[in-house]
Amino acid sequence: MPDNTTADHPSRPVLVSVVIPCFNEKATIIPLLKRVLAAPFDKQVIVVDDGSTDGTRDLLHEYASALDVVRVIFQERNQGKGAALRRGFQEAQGEVVIVQDADLEYDPNEIPMLIAPIVEGRADVVYGSRFLGGPHRVLYYWHSVGNRLLTTISNMVTDLNLTDMEACYKAFRREIIQSIRLEEDRFGFEPEITIKIARKPGIRIYEMPISYDGRRYDQGKKIGAKDGFRALYCLAKYGLSR
Questions:
Q1: What residue spans of 129-188 are helical by DSSP H?
Q2: From the CA atom positions of the chain, what is the Rg in Å?
Q3: Mind listing the pLDDT tens digit for each residue in 134-173?
Q4: How far apart are alpha carbons 68 and 87 in whole angstroms?
C-alpha cells in the first residue's frame, strides 16, 4: 500500500476526493465504485448523477446509501460532464481532488501513482497521459488523431508540452481547483481547465503515464465529433480571453 503522506507532514495521510460525473452508466457504476473503494488510498468519493434515466439513480440509491465514504448528488436534469464536475468540486474536502469517469476505461488502482507528485510536494496539478507508455486497448484511429490535434492546439495556446490534454485523469490540489471559475457544461471542461490552469502563476504541472481500457460506442462511449468541435471552440474562446 502506498504511503499517501505529504512532504511537510510525513506521518499524516492525505485525503483524496474522487469526483465521479455519471450519466446513464447502469452497467459500470457499481463495479467502478467497488474498484475506487478498494484502491489503496484514503478517500472521499463524490458521485454526481447528471440526470440518468437508465436505472443508474436507483442503483446509486441502493448501493451508496449505506457507505459513509460515498456521497451521491443527484442533478435534476442532464447538464453535462462539466456541470457535474463543478458540483462535485464544490463538495470536495480532500487535499487532493481527482476526476474519475464512471465507466471502466481508467483504473482507480493507478490513482496513488498518479497523485504522487502532488503528495510529495513536487506538483500542484497532475495530468494522466495515455501516450506515455501505459498499456491501452487498441480502438479508434481517428479518435487518437483528433486527440493529438486538440492537444497540439492546446499546447500552442498555453505554451505547455502536454501529451494528452483530453485524458480523464486530472488531479489538483483542492485549493487550486476550487479557486477556478469553470463555465463549460459538457466536454469543453478539458480545454477550459487546461487554459485556466496554465494561466495561474507558479502552478507546477506534471504528467504521469496511465493505462486505458477504452470502450466502443455500442458499449456506451459518449464523446463524439461535436464534442471535438466544441473543444476547438473552447480553445479559441478561452485562449483569446483574459
A1: 141-158, 174-177
A2: 17
A3: 666 655 676 778 788 999 999 999 999 999 999 999 999 9
A4: 19
What does the alpha-carbon distance between residue 182 and residue 83 come to, in Å, rounded to a whole number? 9
Residue type, 105: E
For the chain, the domains span 16-240
Neighbouring residues of 20: CB distance < 8 A, sequence distance ≥ 6:
32, 33, 36, 45, 46, 47, 48, 88, 100, 101, 102
Lowest mean pLDDT among 54-58, 71-75, 216-220: 216-220
Q: What is the mean pLDDT of residues 96-100?
A: 98
Whether this prediction's pTM lies above 0.85 is answered by yes
Residue-wise pLDDT for 161-215, tens only, equals: 999 999 999 999 999 999 999 999 988 999 999 999 999 999 999 999 999 886 4
d(CA 225, CA 230): 9
16-240 CATH, one of 3.30.360.10, 3.30.70.250, 3.90.1640.10, 3.90.550.10: 3.90.550.10
In contact, 187 and 170? CB cutoff 8 Å:
no
Q: Sign of the CA dihedral 75, 80, 86, 88?
A: positive
